[in-house]
Amino acid sequence: MVVVTQHGARTNATISRNSLAAPLCEASIYSKKDILNKEDQMDFIECPMTFPQDVPTHVMTYFRQVGRFTGVAPTPSKMSPKQILAYPGDLEEIQCSVMAARPAVKITWTINGNDITTHAKAVERQNLDGTYMTLSTLHHVFNQEDDGQTLECVVKHATFTETDINTSPVTVFFSSKPTPAKVSPKQITAYPGDLQKIECSVMAATPAVKITWILNGRNITSDAEAKDTHNNHDGSSMTISTLHRVVNLEDNGHKLECVIAHPTLDEPDVTFIPITVYFSPVQKQEHTFFQIELNSDYEVFLSFSAYPQPSALMWSFESNSQEMANHIQIPSNNGKFSTSLIIRDNDSYQALLRLSEITNEDIETNFTLHVANEIGAADYSVMFSEAQNPIACK
């Protein structure tokens, strides 16, 4: 037992060659952190020789002679994964850990003789028994030249006469760019409600490609069957994705996209499939325009959709006092009525009807737009009223 007085306080310090956790190393005379972090290839770790001014010289000399303490040998290192399978350009995460050691171990990484520890991050945590757990996580991009090499986790510790090396064999597969994607059919022509089967295939690629289906900016891959991948004789993979989809009116004019992703591609490869949906003019309910002022000019824009473009288009009007309907061609202008057709896109239109100096007779007249294409026909009725809009009045 050695008795040391520090600033008037008595400190008992027991020196032991069998325990690093002896009170001596925890006393303020020594820095425990310096002891535990000291890197030394010797069998023993020597306490730092820094003393307060009031420690007698003979005590410091005594400490220098016996102030050595044995460390705790590390538990066996563990490496995960135990085997690395990657394609060129793949970023992989590998971990190497030692659950207990005193002092903490030092972990380095090598592959093909090259130190790659700069790509790793180590975390140390003190256990309840005073030992240290060390976890090193490596992020490494594997290339073709890494194939057949061995990734090494090298553990160094003061109690080792030789370093502990844990290894993972590396297999980097040969990669080849995908062959051009093929789609069938190359163009979709259908009617609303038709169930279409569309295939997108890549005949060869290493590794297999990933196929995604996009329509109008929305991912619809969930509507496709699971991709079917076959191994070719040369080791490459053929991938086929089959999409089953019911065609809607809204699909007309859009393009279905087959998107191919692969590690060898800087950007996904996209194949477009145009969609054409044939449908007759879409029916609408009668529309009434309210708050019409007599003797004023008024314009009616009536929107409708159809594909292909209407082949027959005209306005008709009929009042209670008339026995036969009158017809107005589109386009036309007879002074009282002016008509025209505005094409918004390939299946959306606006029919314009302009009335000059609206009269009571006009208000009592029912105007009808007649639209027909090769698929079917529809009539759109328009009425005028001086009354307030009932919706606006609520």
TrEMBL record:
One GO CC annotation: membrane
Main location group: membrane
The protein, known as: Ig-like domain-containing protein
Highest taxon above the source species: Eukaryota
Organism: Meganyctiphanes norvegica
GO BP: any one term: heterophilic cell-cell adhesion via plasma membrane cell adhesion molecules
Location(s) in or outside the cell: Membrane
SUPFAM superfamilies with a match to the protein in the record: Immunoglobulin
Keyword terms: Cell adhesion, Disulfide bond, Glycoprotein, Membrane, Repeat, Signal
Signal listed as a keyword: yes
Alphabetized Pfam families for the sequence: C2-set_2
PROSITE patterns: IG_LIKE (PS50835)
Cross-referenced InterPro entries: CD80_C2-set, Ig-like_dom, Ig-like_dom_sf, Ig-like_fold, Nectin/Nectin-like
Ranges for domain Ig-like: 74-166, 178-271
This protein's record includes keyword RNA-binding: no
